[in-house]
Amino acid sequence: MSFFRKLVHVVYEFVEAFVISASVFVVIYLFLMQPHQVKGSSMFPTFKDKEYLLTDKVTYRTRAPRDGDVIVFKAPINEDFDFIKRIIATPGQTVMLKEGRVYVDGQMLDEFYLPKEYMTVPGQFLHEGEEYTVLPEEIMTFGDNRDHSSDSRDWGPVPYRNIVGKVFFRYWPSNVAGLVMSQ
């Protein structure tokens, strides 16, 4: 084989490997999972600014979102941005804020993932002592860092169509890498 043929063969194999790898990546990114970076402190202490997460895009095709799931969704106020929040209530459930605590269906929510001193204040949408019943095809989401989170308390429920997926794995920084558990 001449040098030119060998070179063409090597370049062809390289291009073939690149195209196959890129195709696999695109399929995974579009249909199975997607990386996201935490921006800001709205999910502290669960997640810190600049951590990297993987979002599962398949789970909600096989089951409905559940209370406690951490999700990524298109922000209702500007769909160009993705938000990371925790589901507090799902369709048919009632949500109420009373004396700094969250009540779902009349029961105080056990928010074991938050420090005991955290209080949940009302917002522009969800007012102190008023119940809101979550409608079909929508969820209520709150950030874990309640004092520094723009969430359903201010702008209301998140429509199902805005959900990107369920956060299932934190991969950076490596010292905190691992599965993300829901309630």
UniProtKB/TrEMBL annotation:
Taxonomic lineage per UniProt?
Bacteria, Candidatus Collieribacteriota
Q: What is its main location?
A: membrane
PROSITE patterns, A to Z:
SPASE_I_1, SPASE_I_2
Q: Does the keyword Repeat apply?
A: no
Any single biological process term in GO:
signal peptide processing
Entry's localization field: Membrane
Top-level taxon of the source organism: Bacteria
In the UniProt record, the signal sequence range is: none
Entry EC number(s):
3.4.21.89
Residue span, Peptidase S26 domain? 13-172
Annotated Gene Ontology cellular component terms:
membrane
Keyword annotations for this protein? Answer: Hydrolase, Membrane, Protease, Transmembrane, Transmembrane helix
Q: Does the keyword Membrane apply?
A: yes
Give TM regions: 12-32
Q: Which CDD domains match?
A: S26_SPase_I
* Membrane protein topology class: Single-pass type II membrane protein
Matching entries from NCBIfam families are given as: sigpep_I_bact
In the record, the note on similarity to other proteins reads: Belongs to the peptidase S26 family.
Question: Which EC class heads this enzyme's classification?
Answer: hydrolase
- Active site, renumbered: 42, 85
Cite a single GO MF annotation.
serine-type endopeptidase activity
The identity of this protein, by name, is Signal peptidase I
